[in-house]
């Protein structure tokens, strides 16, 4: 199996979603039913490792994730462009460990989430924009991944009037973990903020 550069040696790298054994037949059916309202992601756009990104150590002492890792663009990415899938353990949302910083909702109605705390792909290294730049340059969302024939979480370049020119080659890819994530972290840590995480199963952004 090919792994991206700077991937932790002892950490499982996923090339496809990992389904938990507790998923019900109804939840599996929901995962494998193509929704009408989501983007279709061709197999060529979900290659692993992703050609759009690379994992890089954070050496800037002022960066909230200094001493850890971030995800950076390997090429110019236009506003609204799909970047990569966010892979992890796809599980029933109710059994989620609330303390996981890498757990994102996949389908709220079906009660399915994806957690990259113990295995995943490059998507787990996306940092929050706070303390790095004025706003996020990327967003989480859901799409239909033709490669695996199921609904998956993905990362897109931010669009809209504030998107600018997109993400330039060499720029760090930054999302918003959502206010709910930081509120939970401040409560859990007595007021301190943690620099690495995920959407903590709150709504995107």
List the helices and strands and how they pair.
Blueprint: E1 18-19, H1 25-31, E2 39-41, E3 53-57, E4 69-73, E5 82-86, E6 89-92, E7 103-107, E8 112-115, E9 127-128, E10 138-145, E11 150-157, E12 174-175, H2 179-188
Parallel strand pairs: 1-6, 2-10, 9-12
Antiparallel strand pairs: 3-4, 5-11, 6-8, 7-8, 10-11
Could you characterize what this model shows?
It comes from Tolypocladium ophioglossoides (strain CBS 100239). This is SET domain-containing protein. InterPro entries: SET_dom, SET_dom_sf. Residues 51-178 form the SET domain. This protein is mostly beta strands and 205 residues long. The protein has one domain (21-188): Beta-clip-like (Beta Complex). It is 8% helix and 26% strand. It is built from 2 helices and 12 strands, in the order βαβββββββββββα. It has helices spanning 25-31, 179-188, and strands at 18-19, 39-41, 53-57, 69-73, 82-86, 89-92, 103-107, 112-115, 127-128, 138-145, 150-157, 174-175. The strands form 4 sheets. It has a 4-stranded mixed beta sheet, covered by helices on one side. It has a 4-stranded mixed beta sheet with strand order 2-10-11-5, with no helix packed on it. A hairpin with a 4-residue loop joins strand 10 (138-145) and strand 11. Residues 180-205 have low confidence and may be disordered.
């Amino acid at each position: 199996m090919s792994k991206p550069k700077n991937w932790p040696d002892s950490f499982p790298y996923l090339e496809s979603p990992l389904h938990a054994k507790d998923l019900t037949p109804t939840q599996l059916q929901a995962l494998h039913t193509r929704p009408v309202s989501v983007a279709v992601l061709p197999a060529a756009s979900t290659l692993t490792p992703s050609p759009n990104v690379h994992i890089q150590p954070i050496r800037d002492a002022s960066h909230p994730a200094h001493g850890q890792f971030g995800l950076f663009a390997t090429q110019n990415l236009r506003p609204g462009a799909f970047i990569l899938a966010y892979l992890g353990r796809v599980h029933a949302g109710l059994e989620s460990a609330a303390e996981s910083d890498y757990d994102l909702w996949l389908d709220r109605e079906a009660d399915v989430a994806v957690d990259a705390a113990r295995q995943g792909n490059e998507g787990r290294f996306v940092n929050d924009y706070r303390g790095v730049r004025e706003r996020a340059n990327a967003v989480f969302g859901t799409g239909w991944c033709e490669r695996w024939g199921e609904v998956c979480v993905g990362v897109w370049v931010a669009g809209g009037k504030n998107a600018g020119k997109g993400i330039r080659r060499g720029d760090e890819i930054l999302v918003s973990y959502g206010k709910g994530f930081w509120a939970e972290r401040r409560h859990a840590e007595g007021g301190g903020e943690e620099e690495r995480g995920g959407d903590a199963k709150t709504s995107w952004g």
